[in-house]
């Protein structure tokens, strides 16, 4: 029970943690929706799983975890459910995407004008940075974790 209390512990009045949590959720959710639901030009669940496995050589279990991290993780962040775990999942996925997806080799900047061979790492630095903030600080205001934490007291 003590471990659960520590896992859920946060400054329940923190606006900054709320903003960080919502910003990360809002940015990652459309990517998760591409991968699971096929929205925004995505492949959908089966197509993404197949692409990750056959084209990128990713083991099926890792591909599944990536898809879940972006979709379920962003929804969890949005509502503040298991916030630290969701932030860790999203942060790890974004770090992996930067490294394994090749962005780390494309320099710093996003490819706004199509002048470089791919996207740089600036987006990933922001996503991982927000995930670390949430991982350390917790969910902040307006989180389901806060309701669970109050019940455990």
Automatic annotation (TrEMBL):
<dbReference type="InterPro" id="IPR032808">
    <property type="entry name" value="DoxX"/>
</dbReference>
<protein>
    <recommendedName>
        <fullName>DoxX family protein</fullName>
    </recommendedName>
</protein>
<keyword id="KW-0472">Membrane</keyword>
<comment type="similarity">
    <text>Belongs to the DoxX family.</text>
</comment>
<feature type="transmembrane region" description="Helical">
    <location>
        <begin position="85"/>
        <end position="104"/>
    </location>
</feature>
<keyword id="KW-1133">Transmembrane helix</keyword>
<dbReference type="InterPro" id="IPR051907">
    <property type="entry name" value="DoxX-like_oxidoreductase"/>
</dbReference>
<feature type="transmembrane region" description="Helical">
    <location>
        <begin position="56"/>
        <end position="78"/>
    </location>
</feature>
<keyword id="KW-1003">Cell membrane</keyword>
<feature type="transmembrane region" description="Helical">
    <location>
        <begin position="124"/>
        <end position="144"/>
    </location>
</feature>
<dbReference type="Pfam" id="PF07681">
    <property type="entry name" value="DoxX"/>
</dbReference>
<keyword id="KW-0812">Transmembrane</keyword>
